[in-house]
Design brief:
With 460 residues, this protein is an alpha+beta fold. Helix content is 49%, strand content 17%. Among the domains are: 82 residues, Histidine-containing Protein, Chain: A (2-Layer Sandwich), CATH 3.30.1340; 101 residues, no CATH class; 103 residues, Alpha-Beta Plaits (2-Layer Sandwich). The chain has a five-stranded antiparallel sheet with strand order 10-9-8-7-11. Strands 3, 4, 5 and 6 form a four-stranded mixed sheet that branches. Helix 4 packs antiparallel against helix 6.
């Protein structure tokens, strides 16, 4: 037993000696040679704690004190450093100065972390002086930059004035565009381009082109918002532009726009003005006109009318058609070409409906008057030829008391309606009243809104 204790001691000593050798041979880490724990600063670079000696702390502290002494507003900041940890105390005039002190400390080599305990002072003098200094510096900078600002302003005025001078040449734009409205639109675009060019040039001289992007971006956002807000107005404006280019009608044309009918007085930048056939003014927004169906009666002066005439079901419809067409074609205002014709429309229980078609020249004949005279002449000719016009059939009962009254009635047939009188052509002459009113209004003093109708270009 006495030998066991020395043996155990010897084995332990040999083991302690062999462990470092075995660790080196097998590549295991040597506990004695292991690196000391490390810390990291805010930048992520490793900092060995073993290197953070008292000399290093002193060097960091002295360096920060020297820096703070040179930076305005940081002279009252106190510095304490221990093991690379910087603690800032004292006072600063503003929050910005307080943050600046911490930022400077973090950038010093060897600093592990920064504790910012600097308090902001609320003294009037310390807070007012920096503000007054900034204001004074801004005024001085403005005064020094006045000559450059004047040059930029002068250059912008020259470019803008040149653009406005070019846009004012109406004869040039009217010769290049089909109508006055489009000419004014092009001139306005030239003015806008001149203003933008002047602004860009001035900002380039002032070396403030970044501001231009901000201004244009804000203007774009505002433009989109306004576009949604006034989309009806924009729609009407674009429709006015398209109507001024297409010119679907002329002044004094008889047109039907949707359900509205009248003669065209003028086309403005906002609405189409019609004079209805009863002499009233009708203003239709151009957006409505552009989307509506437009029927122009004046574009082709030849216009066809039709009417229906019934005969008894026992009569010969072809014979009645021949008689009616002969009377219809004899009217002086009915055109020989295109030739008039008739057709059987419907066959009922007690009548056959015939439909007659004929053409008139609206420049010489009023459409409604001519149609009325044609119906009168055709009806008279068919009746004179012995064809009976159908009448409603009723089954009635007549008592004896009414028979005596019937016998006393004058049963003489009424005289037939006279045919078309020799002056039928004069009776069918067109009514020029509305046309004269439109011409007088267009010849009077022009309205504030200019007429966009162009008589130089054909109607599309």
């Amino acid at each position: 037993m006495s030998l066991a204790r020395p043996t155990r001691t010897l084995l332990a000593a040999l083991l302690l000696i062999a462990l470092p050798c075995l660790a080196g041979a097998q590549g295991l880490p040597d506990p004695a040679a292991a690196p000391s724990p490390a810390a990291s600063d805010d930048s992520g670079a490793p900092i060995a704690i073993a290197d953070l000696t008292e000399d290093t702390d002193s060097r960091i502290a002295e360096g920060l004190r020297s820096i703070f002494a040179e930076v305005e507003g940081l002279g009252d900041v106190k510095v304490r450093v221990h093991s690379g940890v910087v603690t800032l105390t004292g006072t600063a005039a503003t929050q910005a100065k307080r943050d600046q002190a911490a930022a400077i400390a973090r950038r010093v080599e060897g600093v592990v972390t920064v504790g910012n305990a600097v308090e902001r002072t609320l003294e009037v003098d310390s807070n007012l002086s920096p503000a007054l200094g900034d204001i004074t510096g801004g005024i001085r900078s403005l005064v020094r930059g006045l000559p450059l600002f004047g040059v930029a302003l002068l250059a912008a005025l020259v470019v803008g004035a040149l653009g406005y001078l070019i846009a004012a040449q109406r004869w040039l734009w009217q010769s290049l565009t089909p109508n006055t409205f489009l000419a004014e639109l092009v001139a306005g675009a030239v003015r806008v381009a001149a203003v933008i060019a002047a602004l860009v040039l001035a900002l380039q001289i002032l070396d403030a082109t970044a501001l231009l992007g901000l201004v244009l971006g804000g203007a774009g956002v505002i433009g989109i918002a306004l576009g949604f807000a006034v989309r009806d107005t924009v729609d009407n404006y674009v429709s006015s532009l398209m109507l001024s280019l297409r010119q679907p009608f002329r002044a004094n044309d008889l047109v039907q726009i949707g359900d509205s009918e009248g003669r065209v007085v003028r086309l403005t930048s906002r609405a189409t003005v019609l004079m209805t056939l009863d002499g009233n003014h009708l203003r239709i927004p151009n957006a409505t006109v552009f989307k509506a169906n437009i029927l122009n009666y004046t574009r082709n002066p030849q216009r066809r009318f039709d009417f229906a005439l019934g005969v008894d079901s026992d009569d010969d419809p072809l014979g009645a058609m021949e008689v009616g067409l002969k009377a219809l074609r004899a009217l002086p205002f009915v055109l020989a070409e295109p030739r008039s014709f008739a057709a059987i429309d419907t066959v009922g229980e007690s009548s056959i409906i015939l439909r007659f078609y004929a053409w008139v020249d609206q420049d010489q004949t009023d459409f409604l008057k001519g149609r009325s005279l044609a119906i009168q002449a055709t009806k008279h000719a068919v009746e004179e030829a012995g064809y009976e016009l159908p009448e409603p059939i009723y089954r009635i009962r007549i008592d004896d008391r009414r028979q005596a009254a019937k016998d006393g009635e004058d049963s003489a047939p009424r005289s037939p309606v006279a045919g078309a009188a020799p002056e039928a052509e004069d009776h069918a002459a067109p009514d020029r009243t509305i046309e004269k009113l439109v011409s007088e209004e267009r010849g009077s003093a022009p309205e504030k809104e200019k007429d966009l109708l162009d008589t130089r270009r054909p109607i599309e």
